[in-house]
Amino acid sequence: MKLKLIFLTFLLLGFFNLKAQCTPTITSPRLGTMFANEVVFCNSESEILSTTQSYTTYQWYRQQWDWQTPNNNPWVAIPGATSQSLTIDGVNDMLYYFKVAVTQGGCEAESAPILADGYVYGLPFLMADFTPGTYEEVNGEYNVCEGATVQLNDGFPLVYGTHTWFSCVPGSNPPSPTEPCIIPGATGDSYVASQSGQYGFYACTEYCPDQCEMLGDFAFIKLNFGNWSFCNLATGETKPKENNLSIYPNPTSQFIYIGRESDKSYPEISIIDMSGRLVLQKREHKYNQAIDVSALVPGTYVIASKSSDGKIYKNKFIKK
What is the distance between the alpha carbons of residues 49 and 88, in angstroms, rounded to a whole number? Predict the structure, then answer.
């Protein structure tokens, strides 16, 4: 009887151990170092994915990233990827999901997917914080009251390290060390502007020090300081323009709300990235309904809408 109990104990332990081992998990040196379940690497580098435990057979798959949820792109078996490890690189595999299917004895299982990401997803963008009542936007430029300041920030301060700030658009990319637009000593991820100019920056990533990005010309911000007629530092925010809608929260990581209660609904809402590409569109949108933007790549977007009486609104928001 004692021998039977010992045998059954070992049998059960073996069974549970087999089950425990048949839960493949992907690991790599940089997985999760910046974002959970993502490998972030430099464009010119490679990364080795592996399973935390060994199995009898392996088959690796990849799926192209899509801004939509759910992702309808198919999972495709990678030819020849049948070993415990898989090498991916920043040129061919960026913005793909990866998973591995394994077998062990009578067990078959798949790992949770991970995303191979890179700095393409996080191009730097400029955020400006104005003091309420001290500014007015006119045709994409900002008139700011003399004596006020504007806080300028890189929208990805954790991604980018050393910055070069400009008070005008530089003549080359990368900028020359003698570029006259460079603001001396301004190398942090923020800058406080108090004089007229067209502001922007060139920044190198901390993760990939040799990988640097320049803001596009369209992303520079034009500030005109002066004694404007609306200037009153004690007042609240300037009166909204007729073509502006309330957008909140802004910046946002998941949902935004837009609209005027007087409009009730909008036949069409379009979200456009800064390259001019339509990335999201909704029809028959109610002013108090949430718009899910969680699947959008972080950055600045234009949201264009048309009210039922024909008014067209264009506004910017930032996806964190």
Answer: 7
